[in-house]
Write the structure tokens for this entry.
Amino acid sequence: MTQPIASRDMTARSPDHSQVTMTELVLPQHTNALGTAFGGQVLSWVDIAAGICAGRHARAVCVTASFDEVHFKLPIHHGDVINISGVVTWTGRTSMEVRVRVDREQIDGRRQRALEAFATFVCVDTDGRPQPIPPLELLTDEHRACHSQAEQRRARRLQNRAR
Amino acid sequence: MTQPIASRDMTARSPDHSQVTMTELVLPQHTNALGTAFGGQVLSWVDIAAGICAGRHARAVCVTASFDEVHFKLPIHHGDVINISGVVTWTGRTSMEVRVRVDREQIDGRRQRALEAFATFVCVDTDGRPQPIPPLELLTDEHRACHSQAEQRRARRLQNRAR
Amino acid sequence: MTQPIASRDMTARSPDHSQVTMTELVLPQHTNALGTAFGGQVLSWVDIAAGICAGRHARAVCVTASFDEVHFKLPIHHGDVINISGVVTWTGRTSMEVRVRVDREQIDGRRQRALEAFATFVCVDTDGRPQPIPPLELLTDEHRACHSQAEQRRARRLQNRAR
Amino acid sequence: MTQPIASRDMTARSPDHSQVTMTELVLPQHTNALGTAFGGQVLSWVDIAAGICAGRHARAVCVTASFDEVHFKLPIHHGDVINISGVVTWTGRTSMEVRVRVDREQIDGRRQRALEAFATFVCVDTDGRPQPIPPLELLTDEHRACHSQAEQRRARRLQNRAR
Amino acid sequence: MTQPIASRDMTARSPDHSQVTMTELVLPQHTNALGTAFGGQVLSWVDIAAGICAGRHARAVCVTASFDEVHFKLPIHHGDVINISGVVTWTGRTSMEVRVRVDREQIDGRRQRALEAFATFVCVDTDGRPQPIPPLELLTDEHRACHSQAEQRRARRLQNRAR
Amino acid sequence: MTQPIASRDMTARSPDHSQVTMTELVLPQHTNALGTAFGGQVLSWVDIAAGICAGRHARAVCVTASFDEVHFKLPIHHGDVINISGVVTWTGRTSMEVRVRVDREQIDGRRQRALEAFATFVCVDTDGRPQPIPPLELLTDEHRACHSQAEQRRARRLQNRAR
């Protein structure tokens, strides 16, 4: 895997540029004794989707720095389809926030939110050291609303860490 | 997994209704000694994407009946992102054709078609017997073009089988 | 798997009773393009360890309800050993908090905290409905200190959810 | 993995030399909600068997170039044994055709053809560039019959591609 | 999976009837930090091959009862092909011995014995209780030699257990 | 993975230093058609636990040299927890013996020995050549008893190999 870091394109990108849609089928290997997907399996998909999203924005490998509080709202069953969507909501110098939404879809087509998670990723060079990322370009009212909520979550996080 | 077959909604659906986008990251476990994804691993993702697409149209479990000729145009490397999109192009009484496109995306953002495949899926009941599916509603010129090309592939397939 | 729910032993248990130690080796299949373990892979192990811990306390299957904020402090490399320890810190009527600590251990024996996470699990019957769990018996000063910190986290969580 | 390309033995080899027999047990992780093996899982085994067969003929790594039409004739169930056999049927300068037959075997010993597939593999050097392979030595009438059918499939493929 | 136990065919079968050939490719997910296959991974393949062999003789599910001493003679590398062959060498009333040989095959075609193992399997009904198996029919001198060596190993095992 | 071999700490270590506790949950992907864990899957966990234990003593990568006779005493079911503990019992110049005990734990808390195994591991450098390991420091009567039994098993092994 070649990472042309020197020549990385650092122009600002909109959240739409890096948006990720991931669809998975819940198989026996993902489930516990009740036939529902493990929480950790779901977070594992969430992390991959968020990491692809962050990497697409940064055009370099990004690693997970943190996850905010995560609430599992609904069990996801063997045979359900999982729809995961990730979007960059905030960028700093070397890190960014990615919002991931997970919907479960049953065979009859019903779709319900099972989870929403916010993860922070850091862009790293091949030695694992943080490196700069392009800024986020906010083009629509929705982009701006997402970004402003992300700013609030970030303030809360810094406050929590100070505690 | 309960399949409310008796009460399945059989109204016609457009190809957009069941369209599937799947995004995967190529990890060491997917690659051969050259660091590129196995052909069979890629077909495995293609089959899952196509199966979700077929199941979304049929609102019941669908199983793979056949794959048309598949050509691997480009190697996909460890660290690449794979974008897979599936769409129903044709429906019969119990079977349908799904077109799957696979694009490889490198870390610098370049995206290239690596594969296009056409699969036939059959909708089955819980005993594995074929059961009827809703018709396909063609709403746009693109839908109609896709469907007409699918008709031609189907004719060719029947001809090949007769050979 | 038979779950003798009717006859479940509901006597109070100390945190030591259900304490879990899990040791894993980081293999190629757990790592990203930099050769470090995915955040989601680590959370997946954390979730299994916490679920075993919760199930050991409750003597019934428990499912993930939530994870608190999780910060990844150190990268974990291919070939490192991961030491995970889980302990029940708080119990309610049907739910409990599990603290999970993850240490990375390098081949030269150095061991460092890579992660600390707090998860809430709910004990469920075979239909997935919450069911009562035994109370937690606090025997030592450390048990009591852990429990009192867990009470504070719980208050914060309820406050966050109200926001 | 060392590939002594410079000194590769390029003498002609019979199809018997590289023939591959692969036996697999269908486990829960290979199956869908009906308890039957996924089409993509079966193709994944077919691809590995064909790749081993091609590599055994070429004495170098070979990668999948294409699969011909594949028809799934019978469902393969959880607990069934899968018998896969691969044989090189045709060789060109850098590519070859491999025929793969998949039989399902039930616990009572009944064995039935579930699939026959034809794949084209290309022999590559460590940079992924096509490199020459040894010729195929046809020793028996069966070898010659297989080869002549392969020539016909190849003509059809070239014709299809021209379309 | 239906197991027609009542009507199981209990006529004597030769070792050739149940002989198993399994071929696997060593992938990154099978290897340790040195790029060689884990001992446990190899034993896992040996166990599946032996279980298929035992099940083929018994025409019912068989479970592992024991493994004799196992010596790993050669490292097996990432990219090597593994050839596993299993054969029933001895049968009792409900149990049997299976000999498994593992050869590593390098890309240049060299093939060397990496492991020989002897496992005992017990045939069980759907409740996991031992059930009778068909006798072994010894047709050739090689069958008889294998069987007589198996008798000696069995005597040694009984003696070891008595110790 | 960096292995500071030149500066490896070779001071004697007690068996407690390298003791390993591994806890696993039996999932569908680990089980056969009867819903019990495969023998090979269990040995695979045993091998990883033993390898971590050996590596922790040696402070370098260790590879499996042999397993003694292994008897599976109890089936382990889907949903059971597996408790594995490994301890170094004997050291030579470059090899050591590791004892691994496997207990199955059912949801009601009952814990029973399912397996005891003795494995020999060899410490290797990055080229796979055997390299010296630190001596074992026997501090307690239990350490000495374990070591003396290991000496007897070693004598028996050498005798068996001579046969």
User: Anything to note?
Assistant: Strands of chain A lie at 20-25, 62-67, 70-71, 81-91, 95-105, 111-123. The CA atoms of residues 1 and 61 of chain A lie 10 Å apart.
